[in-house]
Amino acid sequence: MAGEISFAAPPFVPLCRRAGEGRCPAVRRFFEQMALEGSCPEADPEGRTRRICAETGLLLPGSALLPLERLFDDFGRYDREGQLRQLGLAAGELKSLTDELGAQLANRCKSYALLGLSAGTAVLVLVL
User: Fold this and answer.
1) Which of 64, 79, 70 lies closest to 48, judged by CA?
2) How distant is the alpha carbon of residue 2 from its chain centre?
3) What is the Cα–Cα distance from 109 to 98, expressed in whole angstroms?
4) What pLDDT is attached to residue 1?
5) Rounded to an integer, what distance in angstroms lies between the CA atom of residue 86 and that of residue 74?
6) Which long-range contacts (CB under 8 A, 24 or more apart) does 36-41 make?
7) Minimal CA–CA distance to 72: which of 23, 31, 119?
């Protein structure tokens, strides 16, 4: 999106359509719905991201939804440089959240592996 905004500065609707191309079905539906609502001038942008996530079945943790809401609900209210800053801010927040969740996932996997090993040992003791 940053490249598109930097060089072509497309309006919101075509930008959403391009962002959804080649994505998984839930993400594609999200961006298609964003484009559809963006094409209606009478649609209220406030709460649009949260509402579309619910409608399309895109399940995101609240901490991931907040930067996206700031980005998409306010899209078009800033000039090109302001929009690029908003995009960079959202990308940075989502990257740090991804890193945090990745660390938690590694710890969970270790816990589940240990739990599986313990359960297997218990079954072996019972069988013997």
Assistant:
1) 70
2) 16
3) 16
4) 67
5) 9
6) 38/12, 38/13, 38/75, 39/13
7) 31
Residue 11: Cβ within 10 Å count = 13
Residue in 80, 76, 77 with CA at minimum distance from that of residue 4: 80
Q: How many whole angstroms separate alpha carbon 53 and alpha carbon 128?
A: 52
Q: What is the mean pLDDT of the chain?
A: 83
pTM across the whole model? 0.64
- In the block, tokens 């240990």 appear at 114
Q: Is 61 helix (H, G, I), strand (E, B) or coil?
A: coil
Provide the H-helix boundaries in 9-47: 12-20, 25-38
pLDDT in tens, 66-89: 888 888 887 767 677 877 888 888
